[in-house]
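Example record for the data management plan.
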Amino acid sequence: MGNLIVKEDLAVNVSSLISAFLSGRKATTINAYKQDLTDFANYVKATDINEAASRLFNLSQGEANLLVLQFKNYLVTEKQLSSATVNRRLAAIRSLSQLARTLGIVSWSLEIENQKNQAYRDTRGIGIEAVNKIISYLKSKNDHKSIRDLAILRLLFDLGLRRNEVCTIDIEDISISNSTINILSKGKTQKECLNLPASTLEAIQNWINIRSNSTDALFYRLDKASSSNLKRLTGSGLYVIITELGAKLGLHNLSVHKFRHSAITACCEVIKDHNLGLETLVKFSRHSSLNTALLYMDHLENKQKTLSDLVSKKV
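Corresponding structural encoding:
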């Protein structure tokens, strides 16, 4: 791809195209699209997403589809990304290409199909013992970072929040008097109100008592680089917090989503212990599909093992 000649007028058009493509969207959507397109730019060894798009639009329909197919295979086989992430990357490229076709920049369309979705292979998370180990460690500390991180970890586990749901919380989303928090759930445009357990509320209150009032973000970076200009904690920053905690406590392959897995698995156990309806699992997990939420219950009960044991006894 490095030898392709990009026409100057096309490069200008693509720059305007990408600006139009990103404008009017939520900040989280813009960041996601930029990440998707940057991944593609890195794959074709372009300096930025403008150059990557220009290279793509210089190709014929067959060449463009082949390149995107190769990119898809790279994401699946070499980077080993989840089906959802792969499909999001493809959707970003397809949407940009569709807009380019609408505006007359290209005459073709991309026809590369999505990667077939796969169910979660392991929804068990890290286990209650590991969660307790991390919570206990943070409780034993009294520095600003540990107090902040404890509030984050309680939200990740007690409410089963996703990474972006934590990072988009503003200070005004917290109501101490009502014990509630407003979060922007995945796929939603409006924040929804969730109730806070006492332990979660206490951790958040302790953080609010010492946090700076010079930013709207509930959680912000505490490194020296951001000390003069407080910056909202990002998903990448939260990933670093979790992985560093895991490494410090000997918990390998720790991730934000494994905390969510652990929380939903714990919710399944509570549902069984208290004979609650399965619809309550969706209330907690906020999955769009009951079938997705039920994967956790199925893995907890290990129905496959039970059925296989019973079948084997037939002979």
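Summary line stored alongside the record: The beta strands are 174-175, 180-183, 192-195.
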